[in-house]
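User: Some background: our group keeps a shared notebook of sequences we're curious about, and every so often someone picks one and asks for a predicted structure to add to the entry. Today it's my turn. The entry only has the sequence so far, pasted here. Could you supply the structure so I can complete it?
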Amino acid sequence: MNLINKDKLYHLIAGFLITVAGYAVLAVAGVPSPNALCLALALTAVFAFMKEAYDQAHPEAHTTDVLDAMVTLCGAALAGITINLLELSGVL
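Assistant: Of course. Here's the predicted structure to add to the notebook entry:
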């Protein structure tokens, strides 16, 4: 019995990693933390919906599923929460 769909898990992980990477690049570039996080979350949203648009444009090899984009955004939200908790604890 497969409780977790691998594709959805990959979208969750991708959302988390894109957000963390975007935040890191922006923070190193000197963007203030709240702004960096907002921009990183927006970047992840753009990637998520562009991926689904790509899938829709290539139906011969891909299937479009809006839930994929939503799960990607859930990964972004988890990254945002993690970053905020690390900042509050003084790690970042």
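Suggested note for the entry: The longest helix spans residues 33-57. The chain has a mean pLDDT of 95.
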